[in-house]
Amino acid sequence: MSSTTLTEVTAALAPQVLLDPIGVSVEVVAAVEPTLNRGVIADCVAGITGGRVKQRRLAQALLDRPDVLRDGRSPAPRVVADLLIALRRAGATRISPPVCAGCGKRLNTFQRRGQDWYCAVCDRRPEPCFVCGLARPVNFRDRHGRPRCAQCPPENERNPVDVIVDIVAGIDPGLPTDLVADAVNTAARQRGQRHQIAWTLQGRPDLLTGGGAGAPAPCVLRLIGLLADTGSQIILRPACPHCGRVIGLHRRINGQWLCRNCVAKTRARPCAGCGAVREPGARDEHGQPLCPTCLIRQPANHETCTKCRRRRPVSVRTPDGPLCETCRPWKIGTCGICGRTGPCLISKTTGQPWCRACKQRWARCTNCGQDRPVRGGTLDAPLCATCTRPDPNFWRTCPGCGEPGRIHAGRNIRCARCTVHRRLREVLGDDTGEIRPEVRALHQALTATDRPTTVEGWLNRSAAPTILRALAGQPLTHDALDALPPGKPVEHLRSVLVAIGTLPARDEHLTRLQRWITETIAERPNPDQQHLLRRYAIWHVLRRLRGRLNGADTTHHQFTAAKRSVQAAVTLLDWLTSRGRTLTTARQNDLDDWQANDKATGRDAGNFIRWANRNKLTKLELPATRWGGPTGIIDTEARWERARHLLHDDTLNPEDRVAGLLVLLYAQQPAAISRLTLDHIQISDDDSCIRLGREPIVLPTPLADLVRALASTRRGHATIGARGTSPWLFPGGQPGRPISAFQLAERLRQLGLNPAQSRSTALFQLATEVPAAVLARMLGIHIAVAVAWQRASAGDWTSYAAEVSRRPSPPQRQ
Predict the structure, then answer these.
(1) What distance lies between CA 581 and its chain's CA centroid?
(2) Nearest CA to 214 among 199, 222, 204?
(3) Which of the residues 273, 667, 685, 691 has the least number of beta carbons within 10 Å of its own beta carbon?
(4) Residues facing 372 on adjacent strands
């Protein structure tokens, strides 16, 4: 490939260095060596690069100077030379091996000096010998660091191994000399290192008895570790000078060897992303430090998980590729809190396994009575951290607020509540750091929550902070939120603002339906169709929906049904337009053809056609289909079997048990169950009643106990913005809102309960036992629905009086 073409390839690949560095390297190599399989090239690249940093360094180096693949000349990073050697071993012929910067020799192995590669001969830089003064390769350095050539060896110099053995024998005579000699040769394989150990211990023998943190070279630490492993009680491993722990020492800082954690603290800098003072994991494009958390959260650093195939932050790397936090494998064990067997981690508090659910579980501690994260005990008797392990020396306190029960703490490591206060000042504060007046209620609700870790995650992982910053300087209204791009973050923030009273409550489903109808009508190019759809959608569909709501909020099913009716009308008008007809000129055979080709939409368009026919807008006719009774299997035995299972299985969720029993026993839909409140329940000392329609129903004892327990212990997933106790019997994931009908139905299906089929079975049996008028008042269904079900079940009570009148009179007694 010509140099011009190679330059064009590298220019096109430049934007992909951050997102796909391996792909960039493969493309550049393939442009030079087209005969080599791309899979082989990718294996070579992946084999010499461990993480993202090396991969990006290699890709950028190849883009900066792709000719290095042809000439093999430095300066270039070491990873480039490793790639050249790997490609040559894989069979590449056009790729050059690394070339010595001194003599030009082709290399299979190399020595590196800065960014240049040298052979073994050229790498030995000559220095003036301390004895003869000639510039020669250094063969030896004396205890003062002065160089000597091979012709001027040291005179009268004892064997360093003998010197070290004598020093160790003077400290711990019980150690065998041959064992000490073996330890010296293992710790220092080069002669210069052995001399350095001997000279160091001659001047400071105390390094062997606990002062090893001041050793000038790592070979001294290796010798101390080997001698301590032999069981010596006098030769001791050194403790970290900063934290005092006897642990492996990592790096020498200011003349002292420190452990890894203390080294990280000495390197701590304020992160340019989150402001936390931590050891930088990398630096951004402006050279500012980034902590490891902000580094992995950057979209450019996300990678495709090999298990779920989603582009997520990398949690762990396996031989098969990176895995995200969700797909990260955990060891299988029995949780010490809930007793379930599954993926578990080892708790640092108890030393016992605990599962994912218990790791996030909150409850009221049975010892101190506070709502805190569960760290011990059982599900029936949970314990918080300090009550699980009362040892005060084990726990640390937050340096900001003094909260106890923390394992990790330090000068710059704050608890979740302190972090929330700092983040809220950044997000909700003005230039002076004061909270803006329009969001003070939000600030108060977020700081007063019982679970600050949830608020911290909401601020760090959701789009809510970005939305609040975008709304700075303008009043918080529904219209301001409606002007933002729609999505779950906006809707969740809206629900929080409604729950705390910053925004007034409104019917969100109805508002979405109105907005969708307005946009759909505006997209129509024909003014006549716009007028027709406006009459139908606004003055018929919405008007009828509002009449049915009677002050209640629109359900998801009602929203979907209304939207489907309007969409079917749009589809029919488009189909007629494609055939050169309008609703007025269309004939019945046109409608029949359309229904034959699109049966599903044809059924939804029936309401539109009948409305247009009544208003003299068309001559088309599409009669409504009369319900002829249930079409599924009516299995009453299975119904009672499921009811007994829900009544007596205490391992199931109480919410699921109550909801399932309301379906099985009282033929309630998930939409109706999800909107039950505490006002629908009447609990007294004698009995418990529930109001599903106009008349309350007395609950049987087992179900009454479940409902009474649910009313006292229910708790939704919403912790942000949820004030006090929710009025809903089944609280949802958003503050101030109940669980959705769809989610409740899914939970019932996971229990093996089909809500639609179970409701039909219950209605069928109830209709045979209860008159239609009573059934409608008890279950909250329309009287026409109750009559239809009674007729379908052959339990029509209207024929009872006539049947009695036709019975023969009993013979009169004499």
Answers:
(1) 53
(2) 204
(3) 685
(4) 363
Number of residues assigned to the chain: 814
DSSP 769-804: HS-HHHHHHHHT--HHHHHHHHHHTT--GGGHHHHH
- CA–CA distance from 572 to each of 524, 526, 576, 605, 625 (Å)? 13, 14, 6, 7, 19
DSSP summary character for residue 648: H
Q: What token pair was written down for 800?
A: 């009872």
- CA 609, distance to chain mean position in Å, is 48
Tokens describing residue 114: 């800065």
Tokens of 713: 């212990």
Owner of token pair 């042809």? 70
Angle formed at CA 743 by CA 737 and CA 745, multiple of 5 degrees: 125
Q: What is the DSSP letter of 124?
A: S
For position 606, what pLDDT does the model report? 84
Report which residue type is found at 585.
Answer: T
φ/ψ (deg, to 5) at 773: -65, -45
Q: What distance in Å separates the CA atoms of residue 317 and residue 334, rounded to the nearest whole number?
A: 25
Q: Which of 313, 339, 335 is nearest to 324 (CA)?
A: 313
Question: Which residues, 6+ apart, have CB-to-CB distance to 643 below 8 Å?
Answer: 661, 664, 665
Rounded Cα–Cα distance for residues 61 and 208 (Å): 46
Partnered with residue 731 across adjacent β-strands are 738
SS3 content of the chain, % helix, strand, coil (to 5): 50, 10, 40
Residue with tokens 């101030």: 736
**Distance from the first to the final alpha carbon of the chain:** 124
3-state secondary structure of 724: coil
What is the C-alpha separation between 292 and 302, in angstroms, rounded?
13
User: What DSSP character marks residue 413?
Assistant: B
Q: Which two tokens stand for residue 730?
A: 């089944």
Measured CA to CA in angstroms, residue 325 lies from 143, 258, 303 at distances of 52, 31, 12
Instruction: Report how far apart, in Å, the C-alpha atoms of 209 and of each of 204, 205, 206, 236 are.
Output: 10, 8, 5, 5
Residue with tokens 């050279």: 287
The one-letter amino acid code at 794 reads A
Cis upstream peptide for 137 (omega within 30°): no
Calculate Rg over the CA atoms of the chain: 39
Q: Spell out the residues 6+ positions from residue 112 whose beta carbon is closer than 8 angstroms to its own.
A: 78, 81, 118
Looking up tokens 């101390």 gives 224
Neighbour-count burial of 596, counting CB atoms closer than 10 A to its CB (0-12 exposed, 13-18 middle, 19+ buried):
exposed
Q: And the tokens for 323?
A: 């895995």
Query: Which residues 6+ apart lie within 8 Å of 523 measured at CB?
Result: none
Average pLDDT per consecutive 10 residues, the chain (814 residues; last block may be shorter): 63 77 88 88 86 83 88 88 90 89 83 82 82 82 82 80 90 88 89 86 89 90 89 87 86 90 86 77 78 80 86 84 84 89 87 87 86 87 88 75 63 71 83 82 82 79 80 84 84 84 86 92 90 92 88 85 91 89 88 79 82 89 74 80 88 88 89 88 85 88 87 69 68 81 88 87 85 86 82 62 57 51
- Token match 């990873």: residue? 79
Spatial distance between the Cα atoms of 230 and 526, rounded to a whole number of angstroms: 93
- As given in the structure block, the two tokens for residue 268 are 């701590």
The string of DSSP letters for 444-502 reads HHHHT-S-HHHHHHHHHHSSHHHHHHHTTTS---HHHHHTSPPSHHHHHHHHHHHHTTS
Is residue 365 within 8 Å of 347, Cβ to Cβ?
no
Give the DSSP H/E element, type plus range, for residue 574.
Answer: helix 556-578
Maximum pairwise Cα distance, the chain: 154
Interatomic CA distance for residues 738 and 674, integer angstroms: 6
Q: Is residue 77 within 8 Å of 57, Cβ to Cβ?
A: yes
Write down the pTM of the prediction.
0.57
**Long-range CB contacts for residues 366-375, cutoff 8 Å, separation at least 24:** 371/450, 372/405, 373/453, 374/337, 375/347, 375/349, 375/350, 375/405
**In 3D, which of 426, 495, 412 has the Cα closest to residue 736?**
495
